[in-house]
Design goal:
Length: 177
């Protein structure tokens, strides 16, 4: 929740006047509960969507980083409250955990995947294969010479998110930064 990737993504969304909710999954940081291998964490995403719906009553653009991207994509693709999906540093394999994204072939919502071209958890070639199987509309941005945390390239990641929001949703950034 407090890493630089999440912070920069939140700033990009907020620059368009969109409300932003950052949260830790169960068992992360100071949150209660125990890590549940992605199952319970999808419930955490749905609880966040419920709160956003109750509080703001606006369509949601989901953005998640790493594990949050994997869990959020799975939870948000079928949810009608979500109108767009942003996956940052999408993981494909971390330690003994393998992530699958076959459901993206049935997800017709606008999707943006942004990763570093040297991300050890989501090798570029493998990420392109997942991307190619995903339903349209979709866009992939591989940022050169950076890894999972967009080292030295956070402004490039933020710009990719902002440009996609502008093109996909015809949003105009406010002067807030």
């Amino acid at each position: 929740m407090h890493n630089k990737v999440v912070y920069h993504a939140a700033k990009a969304l907020n620059a368009f006047g969109l409300p932003v909710l950052r949260f830790n999954f169960r068992g992360a940081g100071l949150s209660e509960g125990v890590h549940d291998e992605g199952r319970g964490e999808r419930d955490d995403v749905r609880a966040a969507l419920d709160w956003l719906e109750q509080t703001y009553k606006v369509p949601v653009i989901f953005a998640g980083f790493s594990f949050g991207a994997a869990v959020g994509l799975k939870a948000c693709c079928p949810d009608s409250r979500v109108v767009g999906l942003i996956a940052l540093g999408t993981p494909l394999a971390v330690e003994a955990r393998l992530y699958t994204y076959s459901y993206l072939s049935q997800c017709g919502k606008p999707k943006l995947m942004v990763s570093g071209d040297h991300d050890p958890f989501g090798p570029a070639q493998n990420l392109r294969e997942i991307f190619n199987l995903a339903a349209e509309p979709k866009e992939i941005v591989l940022i050169e010479n950076t890894g999972h945390f967009f080292e030295n390239k956070l402004p490039d990641m933020r710009e990719a998110v902002s440009a996609w929001l502008s093109r996909t949703f015809s949003l105009k950034a406010s002067n807030r930064r």
